[in-house]
Amino acid sequence: MIYASLLSLYKKYSQFLKYCVGGGTAFVVDFSLLYFLTDIIGIWYLWSATLSFVIAAFVNYLIQKFWTFKVTHKKTNRISKQFFAFLAVQIVGLFINNTAIYALVDQLDIYYLVAKIIAAAIVLIWNFWASKKFVFHQTNEKSEMILAAEIFPPDIGGPATYTYRLAEYLLKRKYKLKIICYSTVLPAQSKEEFGKRITRISSFISLSVKYFLYFFKLLNMALHTRVIYAQGPVAAGLPAMLASIILRKKLVIKVVGDYAWEQAQTLGATRKSIDEWQKYPKSDAPRKSTNLKIKFLNFIEKTTVKKAAAIIVPSQYLKRIVMGWEVPESKIKVIYNSVEFDKQKILSKAEAQKKIGVQGDLIIMVARLVPWKGIDFLISLMPELKKINPNFKLLILGSGKEEGNLKKLIVSLRLEKDVIMPGRIDNSEMFSYYSAASIFVLNSSYEGLSHVILDAMYYRLPIIVTDVGGNGELILDDYNGLLVGYNDKEGWLKAINRLWFDKNLSKRLCSAPLVKMDIFSFERMIKETMKVLEC
Question: Which residues form the Glycosyltransferase subfamily 4-like N-terminal domain (predicted)?
Answer without folding.
Answer: 156-342
